[in-house]
């Protein structure tokens, strides 16, 4: 199984990603690092611990990291994920506790202790990942790669051109891309596509099984949250798609592309991608500043990932 650390801002779709990662036999979740994003840091930690209860997961260390972006002020995403961060889903309080150390230190320890290189899965603003790479630069020696949900080569969601996770902390994303660690971008190009039919989500809500019921509610949140200005969110599995990408890369069309984060002006937080077949003179001669190479997901087999998502959670019969 692939050893991973999840960095999350749970978050309706982060919750589905955590359930998927814990259920998939090809993924070994070493720990979970929390960051402010979809909700406040305290809510994110609490939501994450409650979701571990739903999964009946054995002890998985969870720790709290940054409560705000590196430069930007803290912001709320309550209009997408609700005040609680989990939309309308209500989960019972948990006896689980977060580790008494920062998630930066937790990630450092887990990476150092792992006999195999660790894959970092970024499902949130990348503040924690940037702090880890800055504070403990030696970790790069035992990181396989960073797979992140974020960015877009086309449309944005936080702004017309910027995706939320990168927009929330653009400097952090730039630090991650510049770290020398191979990066894989699961952006809105694919994120906005993988959805579960509404009739399946409604059937799951009616189920007696706790996991089915919770996943149904989370999917329904996306449907409910999709009415109105966030119509593109209808029934998406969201962040869980980045874990599908980890275990089933053949479901995607990807390309190695020059990539950078726009740091100023209206485009702040936009991921700029050079899709020309041959890099232009501007890039070749360094006239356009620093570009990094990243593997970028451009298209996805939606049915394949929808099935993978449901099958992994033992819910395939609902499809
Ligand atoms: C990303 O932002 C959050 O709303 C989701 O959890 C996802 O990580 C989508 O832009
Ligand atoms: Ca997220």
TrEMBL record:
Gene3D superfamilies: Ribonucleoside hydrolase-like. Keywords: Glycosidase, Hydrolase. Residues 4-305 form the Inosine/uridine-preferring nucleoside hydrolase domain. It comes from the Bacteria. One of its GO terms (cellular component) is cytosol. This is Nucleoside hydrolase. InterPro entries: Inosine/uridine_hydrolase_dom (IPR001910), IUNH (IPR023186), Ribo_hydro-like (IPR036452). GO terms for biological process: purine nucleoside catabolic process. GO terms for molecular function: purine nucleosidase activity.
């Amino acid at each position: 199984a692939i050893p991973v650390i999840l960095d999350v801002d749970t978050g309706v779709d982060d919750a589905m990603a955590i359930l998927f990662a814990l259920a998939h036999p090809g993924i070994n979740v070493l720990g979970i690092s929390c960051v402010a994003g979809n909700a406040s840091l305290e809510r994110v930690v609490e939501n994450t611990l409650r979701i571990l209860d739903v999964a009946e997961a054995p002890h998985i260390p969870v720790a709290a990291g940054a409560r705000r972006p590196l430069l930007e002020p803290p912001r709320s995403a309550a209009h997408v994920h609700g005040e609680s961060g989990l939309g309308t889903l209500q989960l019972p309080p948990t006896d689980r506790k977060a580790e008494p150390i920062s998630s930066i230190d937790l990630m450092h320890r887990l990476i150092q202790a792992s006999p195999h290189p660790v894959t970092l899965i970024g499902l949130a603003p990348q503040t924690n990942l940037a702090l880890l790479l800055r504070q403990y630069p030696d970790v790069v020696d035992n990181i396989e790669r960073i797979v992140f949900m974020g960015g877009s080569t086309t449309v944005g969601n936080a702004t017309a051109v910027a995706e939320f996770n990168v927009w929330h902390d653009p400097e952090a994303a730039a630090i991650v891309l510049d770290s020398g660690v191979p990066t894989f971008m699961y952006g809105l190009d694919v994120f906005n596509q993988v959805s579960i039919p509404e009739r399946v989500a409604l059937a799951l809500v009616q189920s007696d099984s706790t996991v089915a019921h919770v996943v149904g509610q989370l999917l329904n949140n996306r449907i409910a949250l999709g009415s109105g200005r966030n119509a593109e969110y209808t029934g998406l599995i969201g962040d869980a798609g980045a874990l599908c990408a980890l275990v089933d890369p053949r479901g995607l069309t990807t390309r190695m592309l020059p990539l950078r984060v726009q740091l100023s002006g209206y485009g702040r937080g936009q991921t700029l991608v050079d899709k020309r077949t041959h890099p232009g003179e501007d890039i070749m001669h360094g006239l356009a500043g620093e570009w990094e190479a990243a593997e970028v997901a451009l298209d996805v087999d939606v049915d394949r990932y929808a099935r993978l998502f449901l099958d992994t959670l033992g819910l395939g019969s609902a499809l």
